[in-house]
Amino acid sequence: MPRLALPSLLHSLLEGVRQRLRGSDLWFIALALLVGLMAGELTVLQSRAAHGLQRWLYGLEAGEQLSAAPEMALLTLLALPIGGLVVGLLAVLANRLKRPLIDAVEANALHGGRMSMRDNLIILFQTLVSNGSGASVGLEASYTQMGSGTGSKLGIALRLRRADVRILVGAGAAGAIAAAFGAPLAGAFYAFEIVIGAYTPAALAPIALASLAGAFVANQAGMPPYLLPAASVLDITAVDFALYGLLGGVCALLGIAIMRLIASIEGSVRRGPIPLWGRPVIGGMLLVPLALVTPQVLSSGHGALHSDLIGQAPLLWIAALLAMKCLASAISLGFGFRGGLFFASLFMGTLTGSLFSGLFVLLVGVPVVDSTSAALAGMAALAAAVVGAPMTMAMLVLEGTHNFLLASAVMCAVLVSSTLVRHRFGYSFSTWRMHLRGEAIRSARDIGWVRNLSAADMMREGVSTAMRSLDVATFRSRFPLGSGTRVVLVDEDERYAGLVQIARLYADGVQGDAVIGDYAISGPTALPGNADVLKVMQHFDRTQTDEAAVIDADGRVLGVLSEAFVRKRYAEELDKVQRELMGERVDENSIQRRSGEH
């Protein structure tokens, strides 16, 4: 008896916690805080694991960054293709899942925040090995995957609402990015702009506390914050804002070029004869010559970023290093190494800003913009172009320099950059790669509920059917006037053949020996059962009908759907989503009851 009482007690306790979380904002905020703490701890562990692997493979001293190393021996650089082999074997394992690995952005956009722990672990190991072996990728993919995955799993285990699970996914990402940079504002804005897709009142407190919790954990663990050098005296005029805006435009074009280059290499490699496991191996071999020129092209480039900001390198070297870093990142990601472009784009952005400032000195003869400030503005602008998070980048510079005047100039650059990318390209790096897969995603804004609201879910089952070859007299005997409004017609193989209105066959002039198929409406068109609500409404607009039959893949009738009910359900779901965004608690049962009235 006691052995049975313990599971029952745990179930009752869990159910009580779940009810409190669903009904109390304070309890939910406390859960988000827990997610932020866990995400911060996971980020610290991953950072130490990746840097430990780099120290072991490349013989680095404690605290030494791979990209800041002076030089690398050829034999040491064999770690790149060896690491590529491990990543390739993991890719073969992931390929057996028969579906793409789901990251936090796709999970929140299409799946209501539901993430697979198996996907999380595969991405974790692939990213750690890729970055640890020196590939030109960042760890942010792994950081956010594990942080967001923690929030997702807790939300699913506690059976929280779809909107609440999405917020917890964002809270995990916020805690992870805040821990990585020691920048809680940047972490919070990252969650809003990248993972949730909107600034919402309901998510404000949970995301803010999760971000603070992640930064706190990293600080307590001894991870240094992302401090950036800045000019001690900075005088910015209206002309300077115009120049920073121009720099933002340059970064936007460069960001688009980088994303297209990666997609081009990835597509060519996928169509080529190289097996899946061998692609990262070839990519690692191609990185070796670049790393022999300078190790600054390796890893995410954090160490090289700080070295180049402090030093004064020749313009020709900066231009060459920028080209090599762009190529190294494109090769790494295009040939199958796993990781993000966020951290790498920060380094490429500083090189772009430094080159921009130096070229103006050559043209004018005197410094027009401060080189360090231009480098930081370029860092934020290029990252905003690639990642699609302008406020995140502005906050990162603000928290890294504590300079509000510089932050205003950076804001100008990132807004121009993100606006141009949105206008000329329309995607961030993560959504661009999903677009190439055929997904219609431009942000993490929740569109999964649209797909879940399908024609089969909304239709009325048990409809009356009749053979289209039936004569009117027989039809009248089976369907008296007033017995209904319409009948679905089928052919000899029980496949859909149109709709007929009962009242129309009782009109004057309709002969009893006529074939009812001649009076069918809707023609041969019908709705597949998996059509989402938007496609259903487009169907009604196109056919100008009030009702439509719903059929399966073989053309057999499943039910009937009316335009009025579809638009009512869409309005109800849209209202539900809007109220969830504003933090209102939605009575899901009432919506289900109204749906059942159809």
Helices and strands in order:
Blueprint: H1 2-23, H2 25-58, H3 79-95, H4 104-110, H5 117-132, H6 140-157, H7 162-181, H8 184-196, H9 201-220, H10 238-271, H11 279-293, H12 302-310, H13 315-334, H14 342-364, H15 371-387, H16 390-401, H17 404-424, H18 429-436, H19 448-452, H20 455-458, E1 465-467, H21 472-478, E2 486-490, E3 496-501, E4 527-528, H22 533-543, E5 547-551, E6 557-562, H23 563-581, H24 588-596
Parallel strand pairs: 1-2, 4-5
Antiparallel strand pairs: 2-3, 5-6
Helix pairs in contact: 1-2, 2-5, 2-6, 2-7, 2-9, 3-5, 3-11, 5-6, 6-7, 7-8, 7-9, 8-9, 8-16, 10-13, 10-14, 10-15, 10-17, 11-13, 12-14, 13-14, 14-15, 15-16, 15-17, 16-17, 22-23
What would your notes on this structure say?
The protein has helices at residues 2-23, 25-58, 79-95, 104-110, 117-132, 140-157, 162-181, 184-196, 201-220, 238-271, 279-293, 302-310, 315-334, 342-364, 371-387, 390-401, 404-424, 429-436, 448-452, 455-458, 472-478, 533-543, 563-581, 588-596, and strands at 465-467, 486-490, 496-501, 527-528, 547-551, 557-562. A hairpin with a 5-residue loop joins strand 2 and strand 3. The chain contains 24 helices and six strands. With 598 residues, the chain is mostly helical. The strands form two sheets. A three-stranded mixed sheet has the order 1-2-3, with no helix packed on it. Strands 4-5-6 form a three-stranded mixed sheet. It has three domains: 17-225, Clc chloride channel (Orthogonal Bundle), CATH 1.10.3080.10; 238-436, Clc chloride channel (Orthogonal Bundle); 455-565, CBS-domain, CATH 3.10.580. Mean pLDDT is 83; it is low at 587-598. 64% of the residues lie in helices and 5% in strands. Helix 15 (371-387) runs parallel beside helix 17 (404-424).
